[in-house]
Amino acid sequence: MIISLMSKKMISLTSLIMISALALSACAADDSDAEEPDDAETAVAAETEENGSDGDDEHDEDHDEGLEPSDREAHEAGGPQPRAVVTYDGGVAVLDGVSLEVVGDFEVQGFLRVNEAGDGRHAFLTEGESFRLIDVGTWGEPHGGHHHYFTTEPLLSDITVDGDAPAHVVSHRGVGTLFFDGSGEYRWFELADLDVESEIVTESDETEGPHHGVAVVREDGSRFETLQDRSGARFIDADGEEIARSEDCPGVHGEAAGPDEIIAVGCEDGALIWDGREFHKIDAGPEYARTGNLFAADGSHIFLGDYRDGEDEPMTEVALVNAESLEITTAEVSSPYTFRNLARGPEGEAIVLTEDGRLHIIDAETGEHLDHIEMLDEWTEPEQWQEPRPAIRASGDLVYVTDPDNQEVHLVDLSEGEIIAAGELDFAPNEIVVIDGRPVDSVSADYDGEHDDDHGHGDDDHGHDQ
């Protein structure tokens, strides 16, 4: 099925109000048996709460001037309230996750990058020589057999973690890790402790030397580190003693975590898998077949990766890396894409945006094309990787697609196969992350996964850009 821009689904205000009211009344009537809404209901609740309960003050572009964190008022919502964080030349903005209206806009100079913190509420802005904490203003709290959800005004804090050439951000089972390329140092902390009113208390260690790398710290203090010469990775225990090492991954890059303590990284000739006990190399086949960015899906042993077959060739295939069978298969998308054009769907689907403007939905198990949606006009990758180009992020059934040329962000509902909203901006969006506002396992107190309908776009989703 091909869906055009002319067939955008419009959500009526009447429906929004009715469904939001039902969600709130159900919670009040029977807390013990309450269930969380599915993604379509989440979208409805989000627009109602953000455009109604929170009031006009959240949409005041000057709301952040002189605002103290404790001055912000919290509002309870009828379901999870997704928000998108978007960087641009001159600042960073926070968008309502359904209406796509700007609810927070902060002036920041210089080239900016943004990463999810991993706790369902915060993000880190890479600014100069610092990771700077942003409270996106959406979160959930477990309560008995269900969750309650809240919003407040976004806030770009003065809380930073400083170091030489800040790069990758990883969250894993309640632990956040920040990696600094210029020193090879990494610093980790408890995600549950993140707060824009408190300095971040970290522990630190260093890899064998400076490099463009990544580290993953587990709950028990053991660590996964890339090697200084980028030839592979090693695993060390909580005392820093090396347990295992592999130097069979040239150009190591990217990181994604899967079930059963699996960690995967990309190589210039395949992928490297840590299964919790030992390393396994998966050869792609060709002498040069680089996978530099990997994307996980909850419960799946298959990682989606970019795939460049030839150093100077455009990418027109994606890699499907199977950590169980230790095989790599590819799926053809017939048009170039970039490292910012990959995501995973709620059932583990591979989602790819290509330069012909199409959003492809692919079965990650078989490589079969399930659907595609006509999203954008044709576009071309810019020469510099820092320059804006279309980017995608997924949260459950919702996929966010930036359109820098037209200064827009589009929202797709995968369950309907339709574009449901388009937000006009006053700037060309560059990087984007989505914070869904749900409680996170190993982060939120009293978390009960049996009552959480999240599809796993938090701790286990660590695809990294180049």
Description:
The chain has 466 residues and is mainly beta. It has a single domain, classed as Methylamine Dehydrogenase, Chain H. It has two helices and 36 strands. It has a five-stranded mixed sheet, with no helix packed on it. Strand 18 and strand 19 form a beta hairpin. The relative contact order is 0.14.
Topology readout:
Blueprint: E1 2-3, H1 13-29, H2 39-53, E2 75-77, E3 83-88, E4 91-96, E5 102-107, E6 112-116, E7 122-127, E8 130-135, E9 138-143, E10 146-151, E11 155-162, E12 166-172, E13 175-180, E14 185-190, E15 203-206, E16 215-217, E17 223-226, E18 233-236, E19 242-246, E20 253-257, E21 263-267, E22 270-274, E23 279-283, E24 294-295, E25 302-307, E26 317-322, E27 327-332, E28 342-344, E29 350-353, E30 358-362, E31 369-374, E32 392-395, E33 398-403, E34 408-413, E35 418-424, E36 432-435
Parallel strand pairs: 1-31
Antiparallel strand pairs: 2-10, 3-4, 3-36, 4-5, 6-7, 7-8, 8-11, 9-10, 12-13, 13-14, 14-15, 16-17, 17-18, 18-19, 20-21, 21-22, 22-23, 24-25, 25-26, 26-27, 28-29, 29-30, 30-31, 32-33, 33-34, 34-35
Helix pairs in contact: 1-2
Summarize the structure.
The chain is mostly beta strands and 466 residues long. The chain contains two helices and 36 strands.
Compute the separation of the termini in Å.
Answer: 33 Å
Strand content: 35-45%
**What would CATH call the class?**
Mainly Beta
Question: What portion of residues is helical?
Answer: under 10%
Question: The CATH topology, please?
Answer: Methylamine Dehydrogenase, Chain H
Which CATH-level-2 architecture? 7 Propeller
Judging from the principal axes of the Cα atoms, what is the shape? globular
The biggest beta sheet, please?
5 strands, mixed
Could you give the order of strands across the largest sheet? 1-31-30-29-28
